[in-house]
Amino acid sequence: MVQYVLECIAFQLVFLVIYDFFLKRETFFQWNRFYLLSTFLLSLVLPLIKIEAFKTKVDQSYIEYQEYLWELNNAVVVSSQEDSGFDVSWQILVFAVGVGVALILFALKLRQLNLLKSKGEKLNFKEFTRIMVSDSTIAFSFFKSVFIGDKVPKSDYKSIIAHELVHIKQGHSWDLLFFELMRIIGWFNPLVYVYQNRISELHEFIADAKVAKSNKNEQYQLLLSQVFQTQNISFINHFFKSSLIKKRIVMLQKSQSKSVFKLKYLALVPLVLGMLFYTSCEQNVNSGESSENSNSLEERLINLNQELMSKDSLTENELQEILKMTNVVASQANKNAKTVNGWTVTTGVNADYEGVAVPFAVVEQVPVFPGCENATDQRACFQKSMQKHIGEYFKYPEEAQEQGIQGRVNVLFTIDSTGNIANVRTRGPHKLLENEVVNIIARLPQMKPGTQKGKVVSVPFSIPITFKLR
Q1: What values do phi and psi take at 435, rounded to 5?
Q2: Burial, 209: exposed, middle or buried (Cβ in 10 Å; 0-12, 13-18, 19+)?
Q3: How far apart are CA 9 and CA 189, in angstroms?
Q4: How many CB atoms lie within 10 A of CB 412?
Q5: Which residue has the higher pLDDT, 315 or 374?
Q6: Residue 42: CA count within 13 A, CB half-sphere
């Protein structure tokens, strides 16, 4: 989620920089309105899109890894403390508080509008409702309501109404309300406020340009006459707003931009394609050996394993087939072996590469966990003992708790032909959690190794461990 938010903000920043430096001064007001609305929406959607044509090949080590070995056993869920029934991180709490404050401010603005509307003198027309506000010089519109202070000179009514009717007919209030809602959800993102400011500014340019077509001089005089007071509400269309007066006058004096300058908008195409390429190619590329053969073997192995799981016993041919494929893929992965915290960790299939490896799901005699020697069902006893061991030696990393890190860590390791633990491999949301799982597995006792057809074999075993903050 954090990565998604950062990517959205980064994309918005790029779009706004393009707008401010290349498009803002052009008189293509409707085009610019479309640009601001569409690019904001694009910034929310682009991080979620992964285009197949743009995707790079993932690291070979992950392609070689036999995914079916993960999550074959029941998950173990461990928490930082007793379940209180209320599970929330500090980040979510801060976000919720921010949204709550923003909602309160929004409600106050709506209340302010409602008070003006209820106290004002209403006069209904075909296209709008005029609301006269007593003892005021305000002038603004909100949807189909035009608010005018009774101290505004009546000679200005015609131009003001014509101006506000442009806002009403073109639905400018919907634009501002959309960004107001985005301000509530994304209160922490300063660029939402910038977007709303830009679109509000653009609305005034659009309305001025429309009115000026019929009477440009009158519009000039109205803007220059005085700066009216206005309500501090971000989602209404102000007629007179001091910070916009100068910009509106400058834009009214500006000559129409040449049509050829519309080609600037084409810059959006390669920009969006570049963003799509980025979101689709976030993983590192490994320029190593081709993994096509490994993929083929792995697919066959996965399919065969699923078929064998439904059988009570194996034929000699089936056994030889699964052993052959397991060890061919394993031998390839052994090239990428490395050491982490004193443990051998491979980036491929984990097994004892000096002998034969048989997955836990299909091995005839599973490794015997200390205490399970006389158990009727040693496979079930092994899994129960494994879960008990994890519960006993679990310690939630303090740093992970402080950072609100939680999630599931999959761990895969091998009980080799001597009964020792080897080739530990973890995959989870953060290294802090992965390292804790490695430490737990390191404390496993020596076991009696598994056997297949009377021969001692190595047995890969996997189990997911879920870390939960309470």
Answers
A1: -65, -35
A2: buried
A3: 7
A4: 25
A5: 374
A6: 22
Q: What is the pLDDT of residues 371-413, one digit of tens each?
A: 999 998 988 899 889 888 988 888 888 888 888 888 888 888 8
Strand partners, 129: 124, 145
Domain boundaries, the chain: 292-468
Q: How confident is the model at residue 427 (pLDDT cuts 50, 70, 90)?
A: confident
Q: What is the largest CA-CA distance in the chain?
A: 104
pTM beyond 0.85 = no
Residue 459: other Cβ atoms inside 10 A: 28
Write down the pLDDT at residue 31: 92
The C-alpha atoms of residue 366 and residue 297 are separated, in whole angstroms, by 24
* Planar angle of CA 368, 369, 374, nearest 5 degrees: 65
For the domain with range 292-468, which CATH number is right: 2.40.70.10, 2.30.110.10, 3.40.50.300, 3.30.2420.10? Answer: 3.30.2420.10
Strand partners, 411: 426, 463
Query: In terms of pLDDT, which residue wins out, 455 or 354?
Result: 455
Which amino acid is present at 94? V
Encoded tokens for 151? 């101290």
Question: Cα(166)–Cα(203) distance, rounded to whole angstroms?
Answer: 9
Residue 170 to residue 144: CA distance in whole angstroms? 11
C-alpha–C-alpha distance, residues 88 and 469, integer Å: 8
Classify residue 296 as left (phi > 0), alpha (psi -120 to 50) or beta: alpha
